[in-house]
Structure formats: structure tokens, C-alpha cells
Amino acid sequence: MATPSILGQRRTAALLLSPFLGLFAAVTLAPLLYAAWLSLFTTRTSGLGFGGTESVFAGWDNYVRALSDPEFLDGFLVVAAYCAVYIPVMIGAALALALLLDSGLAKARSFFQLALFLPHAVPGLIAALIWVYLYTPGLSPVIDLLASGGIGVDFLSADNAVLSTANIAVWEWTGYNMVIFYAALQAVPRETLDAARVDGAGAVRTALSIKVPMIRPAVALAVMFTVIGSIQLFTEPKVIYNASSAIGSSWTPNMYVQTAAFQNNDFGLAAAASLLIALFAAALSFAVTRISRRGSKP
């Protein structure tokens, strides 16, 4: 039987947690449950198109429709190609910059941390608009400069859309992850680094053999969050689509959901597709976590 002091602690903990739990239920659980309910219904028109619409129970039909739709499945291939370009470049650049700032060669560390972090402070929509301006022929000084050198590149074409989107994301998120890696590097024991120097290890050997392995959990966490964010890719390709219409309105899974819901008014299909995206993101994050844990074991 719990003593009065333990009961009092439990009541206090429940009282302190209740605002979070209430907010979590309102903004996370309730929308998920509503989306799950909505995904089980579809809207049909009676009277050969001249009658009214009615919502009828569809069971798993919306999930089958989404999983059998080539546009929805192709969106995951686009995200996979985007991740293959974006994640190695961004994580590698952030790690290299963090190691450089942590080295004895770096000067004015605070200034460069702020300067490199500033792109992340720009809202994603504004960043996408800035880069689309730089991608647009006739407006972009970059395009004009390349054209003057005999280099013709259409950054808004379907062939270059993945690279153009990844470039925007790299510009936005490299500084953010660099700050995370730099903070993790500050926790590396200085005596370990001093011992490496005494043993004759150079700066590069110390960085690759000691610093990077010791901040592996921070790198794994950044990769996991980046993977989850990549699956939710929407803002940058949507702005590129509005600027050129070269990639289609369902280029990514989230764009597919937006098109199904607000262009085709098929909310059941949109809800089913969004839940499938959420399940895929959860499974992928679990896999990344397991792989990172296995890699951290001696």
C-alpha cells in the first residue's frame, strides 16, 4: 500500500503532466483518430452525377487505392532519391564544419556559428521562394552568370528538381545540425584528446578516430530526424511546382495528400495516404534507431 507521501508525489506528478497530456491528446491523438475514422469512408455522388453526395463506409478501400496508385508510390521513390542526395551532403557538411570549429585552427567561433546558423532562421517558405528566384531564368543573376560562360542549366526542370530541392534543404539545415554536432564535441573529454596528441595523433586522425566515434549518438539522432523530415517533404517542391509545373502536383507523398484532399475533394483517400506516410516514417525511424544502436556497440 502506498504511503501518503508517495500518493502526494503521484498527484503532483499527474498535475504537472496534465497540461502536456491534454495538449498531446488534442493536437496529436485526436487528429490521428479522426484521420483514421475519415479514411474508412468515401464520398459518392448519386443520380448519375446530378444528385447529392453521400459519405459511405469504404473499409480498407482507400488504403488499397493509395497503395495501388503509381503516383503515390512514385512519390516515395522521389523521396528516396532526395534522401540519397540530401542526407550525406548535409550531414557530412555539418560534421565537417563542426569539427573545423572545434579545432585549434578556428578563429571567431561565435561569429561563424551565428553566420552558419542564420539560414535556418529563415522560414522554409521564404527560403524556397528565394532559391526559386535564383533558379528562374531571366530573373536570376546566377543563371545569367552561368549563361555568360556558356553553361545552360534549367534548375526548375523535372530532371534537376531533386537536386534543386536538396540544395535548398542543405542551405537551410546544415548550420542547424552543425550547432548540434559542435555542442556534442564540447562534451568530448579533453584528457582523451590530450592523450591522443601525446601519442602523436594529428588533427585529422584525432577528429576521425576519436571525436567522430564519440559523438556518434548525436549524428545518429540528427540522421533520424532528417529522415523523418525528408518523408514530410512538401514546401520546397510545392514552391518549385508553382514556379514551373514541371514536376506534377503529386511529386511527393505529401503533395499527393494535398492534391487528393484539396483538388480532388477525396478526403478519405487523403486521410488513408497520410496515415500510410506516418506508418512508413515510424517504421523508418525505428530502423534507423536500431541500426545506430547496433553500430554504437563495441
From TrEMBL:
The chain crosses the membrane at residues 12-37, 76-99, 111-134, 168-188, 218-235, 267-288. It is found in: Cell membrane. Belongs to the binding-protein-dependent transport system permease family. Keywords: Cell membrane, Membrane, Transmembrane, Transmembrane helix, Transport. It comes from the Bacteria. Residues 74-288 form the ABC transmembrane type-1 domain. This is Sugar ABC transporter permease. It comes from Streptomyces tanashiensis. SUPFAM superfamilies: MetI-like (SSF161098). Its main location: membrane.
